[in-house]
Amino acid sequence: MLAAYLDSLQVVERLHRQLLEVIKSELDQRGIRDLNNVQALILFNIGDEEVTVGELTLRGYYLGSNVSYNVKKLVENGYLIQERSQHDRRSFNVRASEEGRNICRMLADFFRRHAGDMGESGLVEADLEESTKTLERLLRFLSAPQRLSRLSPAA
Fold first, then answer.
1. Distance from the Cα of residue 50 to its chain's centroid
2. CATH for 2-144?
3. Is the pLDDT reported for residue 155 higher than 60?
4. 29-60: b (≥16 Cβ within 10 Å) or e
5. Which residues lie across from 83 on neighbouring strands?
6. What phi and psi values does residue 51 have, to the nearest 5 degrees?
7. Domain ranges of the chain
């Protein structure tokens, strides 16, 4: 079980890195130099919503310090609009600017093209659905604090 577990974690890590590589390639092909792949993915995940920086972190997509840095860069480069929350003056809401929404649309088209090309590689929707179910179970396992504390060595 240990070998299969470690192999699956390695594949997930490599899959994420490869996703970032193909996004970077798409940005490069379009001559977009003021945006990195992680920032593009943050924009895509924000979409048409207005969220707080804390919500991005809580969604589990990004590490806290990286979110703050990347949001700052996205604001500086005009991809995000940041405003202080009217309800909680300590937090800031962010939403995509028109330029940011253009990046969201570009990535949506990119993902649509990739999904359309998957059949040529032998991947079918059922494969992805089954993989997603398995990965979600693994995520729930890793997210269960009572299980992790039970696995920690005794102090």
1. 16
2. 1.10.10.10
3. no
4. eeeeeebbbbbbbbbbebeeeebbbebbbeee
5. 93
6. -135, 165
7. 2-144
98 contacts 79 by C-beta, under 8 angstroms:
no
Contact 95, 49 (CB under 8 A): yes
Q: Residue 58 — very low, low, confident or very high, per pLDDT cuts 50/70/90?
A: confident
**16-32 pLDDT tens trace:** 999 999 999 999 999 99
Percentages helix, strand, coil for the chain (3-state, rounded to 5) are: 70, 10, 25
Is 41:23 a contact under the CB 8 Å cutoff? yes
Q: Are 54 and 64 in contact (CB under 8 A)?
A: no
**Strand, helix or coil at 61?**
coil
pTM here? 0.84
| Cα separations in angstroms, 31 against 12, 24, 39, 64 | 29, 10, 15, 29
pLDDT, the chain, mean: 88
- Measure the CA–CA gap between 69 and 41, rounded to whole angstroms: 14
pLDDT of residue 33: 96
Token readout for 26 is 């798409």
Q: Count the neighbouring beta carbons within 10 Å of the beta carbon of residue 107.
A: 19
